[in-house]
Request: fold
Amino acid sequence: RRRAQRAADQACSSVAAPEAGVASAVGGLPTHPKLRRGVLDNGLHYVILPNAVPPRRFEAHLEVHAGSIDEEVDEQGLAHLVEHVTFLGSKKREGLLGTGSRSNAYTDFHHTVFHIHSPLEGPLGQPMVRLALEALEEIAFQPRFLPQRIEKERRAVLAELQMMNTIEYRVDCQLLEQLHSENRLGNRFPIGKQEQIVGWDHDTVRRYHAKHYFPANTTLYVVGDVDADECAALVEEAFGDTPARPHKVLSEDVEVPEKPRRQAAPPVVHLWSSGGAGVGPTGVPEAGSSGVPVAPPRPPSTQPVLFQHTLLESVQLSVFAKVPVESVTNVDALVNSLMVRIVLSAFQFRVSALYNSYLDRPPPFSVVELDHSDSGREGCAVTTFSVTAEPEHWDEAVRVAALEVRRLVANGLSEGEMKRFLSALLADSEQLALQMDRVPSVDNLDFIMESDALGHCVMDQMQGNDALVVAAQSVTLDEVNRTARELCRFVSEFGRDGAPQSAAIVMSCPEAMSRPGPDGAPVPFVVSPEDVNDALQAPEGIETFASAEVDVPDMLMTRGDVAVALQRHAASTVASVVPQRVADPKTGAVQIKLRNGISVNYKHTLNEPCNAMLRVVAPGGRSMEDVKSGGAVAVGTRTLSEGGCVADYSREQIELFCVSNLINCMLESDEEFVTMDFHFSMREEGLAKSLQLLHLVLTRPRWEGSAFERAKQLYASHWRASTRSLERAASNTLIQTLLGEDRRFTDPAPEELDALVLERLSSP
Reply:
């Protein structure tokens, strides 16, 4: 369920809004100054945003506000089939082939979308905006439901259903089915049901289309290197003559009933964890009010649901709380959103510190996550507490993770934590604002569409940053800790009277333990809903304690340290390497050879203003391993990454140093190379700080036994999982057939992992 939300929900939508500018003193948010909205006489809504990235290209997406939740009980999969038939049956869409255009379509719970990505002019000078809009009009409102096309797409949909039937998809379906058990989202998956798909006749397909596909039930989005006035005229030209009800009468005796325009979010009733029920992002109108379905009865409690399958390797427990989306249309809502992200950032850092605190054995959990995200496709906001662990340690993992949540609630964040993560979020927002003229059109379009579904106010990146700066002034430690308590109550008070009721509790787990028994036979994994409840509930008398403050350095090396390093390694200064610089006229890259033999290539681009990317490449990789050191490079690289500490700095200090300075670092190995990637801001000496971190990783890494054990545990898990994955098992078998006894190109086997010794990995 993770949906990354970057440095502020800087976004978006309402037709009537305050004038463009900064957030007003009374709390209103500005709207994007270039965003243009309109409604044609036939009811079609359109949104236009000029955006010249990439230049001379545009995106045109036609959203039909009908998806799988609009299907009746005997229509499951019909929205998807109609999407296939209308899209692939369009002659005008076929006419776009060979023009440099790309087109596709998809169906989700709440909508069906047809999209075209195209240059402004075709190879023969064709006016592609006009042609694309005409193609979309034909797809949606003038489809040809030929019997042979319906049968062809029926077979395609059935084939797609088979391809999607993976274990990951089954787990996702279990989560959604339980999370939304009170409404259609839990039983109307877009792919549909095979037994129904095979039986629909021609009239059934036409009738669904006629009911849902009409201009007032659609929104057209055009984002690209276009003039807003000219584009609006083309929209009128392409769609203005479309009848308000194109297929109201299917035949002499069949008339399709009228249907109003549906809101962007799915019109389903949600039972909120805090009590009550409602529809849509704001939770109103309340269920049972005029024209709104009555909410189903709320169960007295939420019991864990177990999903066991032989293809699952690890245990994942997910606990959900469901609340209305708070539409971001004013500063107060933005303040609340900002405080939620501060709390989540602090919790994930604490989990990372907890993970690395196990020095004498691997931690009981692999992953612990606390997430809060708004979902336009589901019309609600969901807070998720999830724990992933090996089946042997799942109960300890859940207890440890739940205790960490209770610590957060009981003791709150410190002043230093709040300021640190607030500063990082503001710095990230500022970086986004500096890149506002470099955001691709498709990203802007997706952002606007999701914001419309959530009821947010659409701002450009600079407006969003300005609004976030205003919002940050209202953030206080007391309010952040109040937010933490409210956000986490469904976990911290689990099992107590008056606690918020979880929307769902789902455990996905294997049928057997990770390791066989003494006789080599699989050991069954046995768990019950009562076991899950016991693990989540806090034992009596458990004491919580506040997290220790972490001293975060401003720089990792002093000027004296740098001077000593320069002298010791005889590296060149910038001035001394000028004569050795060679510029490649074809690529624009500058090549430098340092006196110590290191080759440096660099190039200046404007793709991400004030940002830079650094990659260090060391040849060798797993090809350097031999029979006695199988997996050494892979496990060694992972050990350094797991440890995350260098010189005299702890992992926590390095992590917070990177967070504070917007530095992302990744260390990886493959068959040929060991690589280290840095993505960082050039502001506040970002290059110097990244190079200092690189220098310490190369010269003063710390090889920790606990990190070594965690790395081996990870690869052991990969090995076990490969035996249950058809794709990975086939890949390993193919490689072994080609290479024989050479195992450097497959995951290390358990016996190879057991033979590894930390001292051998860390030796020069």
About this structure: The longest helix spans residues 331-355. DSSP finds 23 helices and 21 strands in the chain. The CA atoms of residues 369 and 386 lie 5 Å apart.
